[in-house]
Amino acid sequence: MKVAIFNAAGAIGARMVETFHLSGSPQPVALAPAPAGLARAARFAVSLKLVDPASTESLRSALSGCSSMVFAPADEDEPARIVESAATLARACAKGAIRRLVMISEAGPADRKAAEPEDGAESLPGLLPGPRSAALAEAEAVLLEVRVEHLPLTIVLRTGTVFGARVPSFAELARGLESGEGPRPLADAPWNGLHLDNLVAATRAALSARIIEQRVFTLTDPAAITEEAFRAAVARELGVSAGVATNLPREPTEGTAHQIQGFNVEKQLGYRPAVDLAEGLRRSCAWWRHARD
């Protein structure tokens, strides 16, 4: 199976290209709107394609031979570009270009429709409401309307804060901790984060799932931890002080939305986390130490 990854320029897209290629399945095709966006993917023997996000024909041509696609807006994408790309994708998909599309979204709860029956539980926090979050929510709505021969084409994976290698927000956190700067999080605010490798694993599951009764899933790592505790755990892994002392939880808290959503994702998609929180932190900090040096 060939799967197109757009945008391969972002941390999420780049990691998917890398993981899929090294594992041998599915076969990734890297898409980006500019040559620089294909630099990371070019390290591997994968197909590289430049696309015009505003051109239906450009996308249809780039998708030739692919049965599936991942739409992962990069952190630097402008809100208007996200919506424009989604609309163009919808036009291409409506003409039968692909059979399965997985969208990665961080839309905040305030920008989502209330009480969507597909969610199965209350939405966990994503991005704070704002232009990017609103654009992601609009893109979700556009792509969820697309159907080919009455098959559920689009699956939306709504994430908490993604962390891991090359993720700008994690690099900012690590840099701030090492310099002794940066804002302090609320002590009791839930972290609801998702390690990059777990997002890749969930995407792989969404691409291959056969029977899907719902099309929107909320995804976080299976551990209950506060923002302050997560910050402290990162500091401890980096060998610096965060001003607080705490340990990582061994098990998720009973009755949390994590368990409800985790059950839905496991049952519907067959997803299993690739790493636990401790391992995710170790990998993220190992990348940071290498990147800063």
Largest sheet: 7 strands, parallel
Report the C-alpha radius of gyration, rounded.
18 Å
CATH class: Alpha Beta
Provide the spatial order of strands within the biggest beta sheet: 3-2-1-4-5-8-11
Note the overall shape.
Answer: globular
CATH topology: Rossmann fold
Q: Mean pLDDT, rounded to whole units?
A: 83
Number of DSSP strands?
Answer: 11
Poorly predicted ranges: 114-122, 249-260
The amount of beta strand, in percent, is: 15-25%
Give the helix proportion (percent range). 25-40%
Chain oligomer state = single chain
Write a structural description.
Mean pLDDT is 83; it is low at 114-122 and 249-260. Helix 1 (11-23) packs across helix 6 and helix 3 (79-94) packs parallel to helix 4 (131-144). The strands form 3 sheets. The chain has a 7-stranded parallel sheet, with helices on both faces. The protein has helices spanning 11-23, 56-62, 79-94, 131-144, 168-179, 196-208, 227-238, 257-269, 277-292; strands spanning 2-6, 27-32, 47-50, 68-71, 100-105, 147-148, 151-152, 154-159, 161-163, 193-195, 216-219. A hairpin with a 2-residue loop joins strand 6 (147-148) and strand 7 (151-152). The chain has 293 residues and is of the alpha/beta class. The chain is globular. The chain has a single domain (2-292), classed as 3-Layer(aba) Sandwich (Rossmann fold).
